[in-house]
Amino acid sequence: MEVIKTDVAIVGAGGAGLRAAIAVAEADPSIEIALISKVYPMRSHTCAAEGGAAGVIESDDSLEYHFNDTVQGGDWLTDQDAVELFVNTIPKELTQMEHWGCPWSRKENGDVAVRPFGGMKIMRTWFAADKTGFHMLHTLFQTSLQFPSIKRYDEFFSTDLMVDNGRCTGVTAIEMRSGQMRLFQAKAVILCTGGAGRIYPFTTNGAIKTGDGWGMAYRAGVPLKDMEFVQYHPTGLPGSGILLTEGCRGEGGILVNKDGYRYLQDYGMGPPDPWPRLKAMELGPRDRLSQAFWHEQKKGNTIPTQWGDVVHLDMRHLGEAKIDERLPLVRDLASSYVGTDPVTSLVPVRPVVHYMMGGIHTDIDAATPLPGLYAAGECACVSINGANRLGSNSLGELLVFGARAGRHAVEYVRSAPEPNAAALEKQGAEAQKRITDLFTRTDGTERVAVLRREMNDAMEEGCGIYRDANTTKMSCDKTTELRQRFKRINLEDKSNVYNTDLFQCLELGNMLDCAETIAQSAFQRQESRGSHQRLDFEARDDSKYLKHSMAAYNGDDPPKIDYLDVVITKSQPAERVYGGEQK
Ligand SMILES: Cc1cc2nc3c(=O)[nH]c(=O)nc-3n(C[C@H](O)[C@H](O)[C@H](O)COP(=O)(O)OP(=O)(O)OC[C@H]3O[C@@H](n4cnc5c(N)ncnc54)[C@H](O)[C@@H]3O)c2cc1C
Known about the structure:
Helix 8 (320-326) packs across helix 9. The protein has 2 domains: 1-52 and 132-229 and 357-563, FAD/NAD(P)-binding domain, CATH 3.50.50; 234-352, Alpha-Beta Complex (Flavocytochrome C3, Chain A, domain 1). The chain is built from 15 helices and 23 strands. It is of the alpha/beta class. The protein has helices at 15-27, 63-73, 80-99, 132-144, 212-219, 247-250, 286-298, 320-326, 328-338, 394-415, 421-440, 448-462, 469-486, 500-524, 542-545, and strands spanning 2-5, 8-11, 33-37, 53-54, 114-115, 125-126, 150-154, 156-164, 167-175, 180-185, 188-191, 224-225, 230-236, 254-256, 311-314, 347-356, 359-361, 373-375, 380-381, 466-467, 533-534, 547-552, 560-565. The structure holds flavin-adenine dinucleotide (FAD).
């Protein structure tokens, strides 16, 4: 197998991966970087982000307010040292993006404009119309091109982390166009592989979001943290799951049920107050809004369609000029995918799986417990999102912690020993054998598409917006069964060139491992907090569960779930209040 020697291997070239690469290159131009991505960087999911990135800039705002909103939004499961670092750093990162050329939308006077966002009680979300991720990713990509030390490996699919003597020493990846495996020998590896919404059947996430980094880290012995916290975004388009950004409501859009009634006032989101309704109603946090939809559905107040029940997003009162200036993509998406123009019609929407709060356990330097392995962006759990991420904190997170991962990897690499070549070769050969076995076996009986569908259905049914002991147990049993059946998977396409059957098979393996950690963590957390709502344990239980769940790989058996204390520095757990006067 060809060995490619580098200093830092970064898996993932979305926002987090590119930001990490730039940080390494800026810190020390002599450090070699291999930037590995299974898609061309601009096709990473960051490109799809619409609404914006939160950072304190207005004079009536403060770092403390952003901290409070984030901690409360996360139902006190956030690590407060990480949140504090995040809110302090993000304005600098967003300004840095401006200097690198990110075209932030402006006010009349030329200042950077901000818009309201869910759970943020002050306007602080920077945006570039409703294509923020697109512009951020372009900005990072074009900036990365000026550093000769960043060597890109586009369309390389990573499969396994190399671990020797308790350190991470590299990663294997298949060159997709030839089917050949390469061994990247590295002193440090940074995982920036994004989320895993594709574990669920109805999601805003692109097809590449399959939890590959989670799977690799987990099998290498790194715990996955807070996996039970799965975010449903309240406004996805029925049928496709395409997102209509929270920016729609940030700009003034409202949600109504089948009677045209703004039902959120019945769910503790406060009275429909005059604009800007920063305290709540449609700008409440995503977990609460998705839960309200579930109740409306139970009451028969939703509207049935061929793609399931919906409510309506009404933006007509915003007017064509504002919609075209602030929400051009939303107009385009609604017109193209559900045939309704928001300027003149109500748009059907329903909750959709959007984001994973959990992920690879890291400290505030983006370091995992495995020396030499770092993680940042959506695949990591640092944790600033706790039990429910606030919209527009994720684009900031990937900048702040992507940069930190890069800088701390540089520190580590300076004193890390050279990887042991013989040990690497042996592990590389094992990774290769796993793939070769898939090609040569003749007894495979299971199909990728069938197992994936069964996994999707079991997770939606068992670990959805509301869960209980029976449903989560069903998901546990089903994912364990599917992991067994996966051993008998049949690769139908045996060719080498762009073998999508192979890659979908590897992605399914990763998703099944992760799905089992979601189900087990959800089954064992006997309380309701943020996005994890148990019908059989309706209250939050700080005496037992003010803790992160940590899922550890256990071979063929289900993961072992342990708990780790949450870091609390200055905000003691309290009731989450929206729709009131609190700041
Ligand atoms: C539709 C949508 C809208 C959103 N809007 C917002 C918003 O307005 N504000 C906000 O804060 N957040 C938003 N989010 C969330 C946010 O965009 C994501 O959490 C964030 O962009 C993730 O960035 P990332 O760099 O961690 O991962 P990604 O951008 O997903 O990149 C992952 C990278 O990993 C690579 N990769 C994965 N597996 C492998 C493998 N096996 N081998 C090699 N490479 C691999 C991929 O090729 C890709 O380059 C939105 C999300 C979605 C889905």
